[in-house]
């Protein structure tokens, strides 16, 4: 990743004990839960916790399969966070009583025509050069692993370390675990309150009379794709986050259809199928630079289903339970923004783009260290919120 301008240092944070988290998605909730366990007095502000991008995610914990899209620092952070997931999931399940549905069967990457096979072969070369565990499979071997795969599967790669988790169960578990750890939830949208150049708290966004201030020693901005639009945010610290629309489908009745995540290239089009323990199958996803648009389009549903049925013909028999659109918090280099900002009292944990579920353990651990007065882990250092020279306008730049 290149850091064109801005500081790359992220100094330890001298924090008081009251923390306000703006945004209750997988990132804000993981941070709130972790900080409450560290002994901070934490309040989460969100009118609909868990209903943003975290509601739409496929829950893949897949740094290796994503390696082709990623720069080396992001890959390293993703691998570290993936390695932290089993313990994170264990603790979360213990403290919430909610099984988060971690599946550790790995992923299968498959291609259909000659061009798809060539693209897959390039991915295999890249993984080999980066020493990332994978195995090339013949079509027959792939279908032995996953009998539901189409006989037209031409080539395949097994990536044993790329797993998945149920994103919605994870969010539910985080809310319960956070509440049990003492986190207070406020169901409203907030803006920042700045006094004398310091962020001193948040207040509800209402027309007319200013709402009372929820004072805080530290405010963590974790508002996902809306992070650049939070009211009261000074221009100098506006994060370079833009909405990247993703449409995704949930199908029912798929118990035992697939054992592991399938990521396919079908005549050049990418599609993934992620099985859940409860018989649900997640099929995704589009990636559209159209600004903050949450409409589900007929074209996207058609395109995703057509590709998914080509990969696993039995998908045609499943029930279409849900089609959903949400916006990923995209950044210019696809890396998150984690750490302190030039504005006293303000931390950021946003811009997790395609990997917020994957990166939740690493992000919450980094913020916890920062508030303990420790330096950020080296792997997180490249992701300083100040690394971009010019804030992006999320609407115009997203087109
Ligand atoms: C279709 C799709 C598939 C994906 N698949 C994967 C995947 O397989 N693996 C993976 O790791 N990642 C995946 N992602 C990405 C992942 O979903 C995101 O990176 C992650 O959810 C970001 O979490 P977040 O908490 O930052 O944002 P969100 O979950 O969007 O949460 C932000 C929250 O902030 C709140 N908020 C906004 N403004 C305010 C305000 N002013 N005041 C109070 N609250 C506010 C919102 O209500 C929202 O609840 C996918 C995303 C999409 C869209």
Euclidean distance between termini CA atoms: 23 Å
Secondary-structure-based class equals alpha/beta
Number of helices: 8
Q: What composes the largest sheet?
A: 8 strands, mixed
Q: How large is the radius of gyration?
A: 21 Å
Q: Which regions contain 5 or more consecutive residues with pLDDT less than 50?
A: 1-9, 391-399
Q: Could you provide a short overview of the structure?
A:
The protein has 399 residues and is an alpha/beta fold.
Question: What do these coordinates show?
Answer:
This protein has 399 residues and is α/β, with parallel strands linked by helices. The chain folds into two domains: 251 residues, FAD/NAD(P)-binding domain (3-Layer(bba) Sandwich); 142 residues, D-Amino Acid Oxidase, subunit A, domain 2 (D-Amino Acid Oxidase, Chain A, domain 2), CATH 3.30.9. The strands form four sheets. An eight-stranded mixed β-sheet has the order 5-6-4-14-15-16-13-17. Strands 8-2-1-12-19-18 form a six-stranded mixed β-sheet, with helices on one face. α1 runs parallel beside α8 and α3 crosses α8. The chain is elongated, with a radius of gyration of 21 Å. It starts with 17 loop residues before the first strand and ends in a 28-residue tail after the last helix. The N terminus and C terminus are likely disordered. Bound molecules: flavin-adenine dinucleotide (FAD). The site of flavin-adenine dinucleotide (FAD) has 44 residues, from α1, α2, β13, β17 and α8.
